[in-house]
Amino acid sequence: MTVAARPWLDQIEPYRPGRHAATLEGSMASNESPLGASGAVLEAVARSARSAHHYPDPLADELRSELAVLHDVDADQILVGNGSDELIYLLALAYLAHGGHAVCADPAYRIDEISTQVVGGRLTKVPLKDWAHDLATMARVDADVAYVVNPHNPAGTVRPLQELERFVTESRSRLVVVDEAYIDFADDPAGMTALPLAAEGRAAVLRTFSKIHGLAGMRVGYLVADAAVIATLRKIRAPFSVGTAAQAAALAALRDPGHTQAVRNHTLRHRAELTRLLQEAGYAIVPSQANFVLAEAPDESELVERLWRQGVTVRPGTALGMPGTVRVSVPSSAGLDLLRAAL
Ligand code: PMP
Question: What is the pLDDT of residues 213-269, one digit of tens each?
Fold first, then answer.
């Protein structure tokens, strides 16, 4: 083959997904729900197979209108995507292609970084301060898009709404994107979400069904933003990117708040135990508001391999831009026992 990829693509370090362990319980590398999806989701997905021969609803109207009611925004302020990752790529295409400029934390969520590089954009990375976003420094960067991941991945830290509001007001960036993939695991999700800013069109908020709803394999996320931003992204998206089964799964998950609450309760309780266990094993941890815990591990690769041999996978910090750490997803009770024995 003689075809050459665009030259700037040579710079891209590909995304390295977490490994699965031999058992579900032992898999603590990808922040997946240890409780799985709700029973209602399984039924809805099975039912949706009857429509397998039809193209899906391009804009996921039923889901979009329920989300609009839930978040008290106009349905035209919502775009549903094939995971929030698709929406991050669309934002990059629309606002960062051909020399656009993005600012994000260092380490960034890898897809924010990769999507910017893919479209030939420029990235300014601002190191975390005390393990959290340094919003004051980020605000001084004159960028097209500012990415704030709140809670941050992989640190698990949050910035309160007051600080985000100040950032949105003072930031020199034209569009502030707040990625709230993990917000349902924070102490006060309702009090810290940037959705009120998104409702006013002052920021864009990313949410996903992959975490608290346990639908990572279904690929559903959504963006809440100013209607003009949504209209732009609608123009450039692939029309059928969110499948019928995925839409049915997300709707069923949304209508099962009991399961959502159970996952939250499980996560908060087991996060505290996971934290204690890692500390008892001699690792300093970063207090987390997400469904994972970051541990400082000077013996990173040795620890990752030792756990792997005992049936537990965790994410090496090097793959997430934080060498000398490991990120451990909150597991099931059985998973916690496995990890305790392995440590
Ligand atoms: N944002 C952050 C910060 C994440 O950690 C993840 C999950 N890896 C995503 C977005 C992507 O989620 P989705 O599965 O919806 O693409």
Answer: 999 999 999 999 999 999 999 999 999 999 999 999 999 999 999 999 999 999 999
The boundaries of the domain holding residue 27 are 7-36+258-342
End position of a domain, from candidates 228, 254, 280: 254
Question: Average of pLDDT values for 166-191?
Answer: 97
pLDDT at 297: 97
Per-residue pLDDT, 116: 98
Atom number of ligand 1 nearest to Cα 153: 3
Section 300-328 average pLDDT: 96
> How far is the C-alpha of 244 from the C-alpha of 3, rounded, in Å?
36
Same-domain check for residues 47 and 94: yes
Do 55 and 73 have their domain in common?
yes
Nearest to 150 by CA among 320, 33, 290: 290
What is the distance between the alpha carbons of residues 112 and 331, in angstroms, rounded to a whole number?
A: 26
User: Which pTM value belongs to this model?
Assistant: 0.97
Q: Backbone phi, then psi, for 47, in 5-degree steps?
A: -60, -35
Neighbours of 328 (CB within 10 A): 28
Cα–Cα distance, 97 to 23 (Å, whole number): 41
Residue 149 and residue 101 share a domain: yes
Please write the tens of the pLDDT for every residue from 58-91. 999 999 999 999 999 999 999 999 999 999 999 9
Task: Name the residue with the closest Cα to ligand 1, atom 1.
Answer: 181
Number of Cβ within a 10 Å radius of residue 338: 21
Choosing from 179, 184, 294 the residue with most ligand 1 atoms within 8 A of its CB, the one to mutate for a pocket test is: 179
Distances from the Cα of 33 to the Cαs of 197, 304, 329, 341, 342, in angstroms?
28, 21, 9, 21, 21
Q: What is the mean pLDDT of residues 37-51?
A: 98
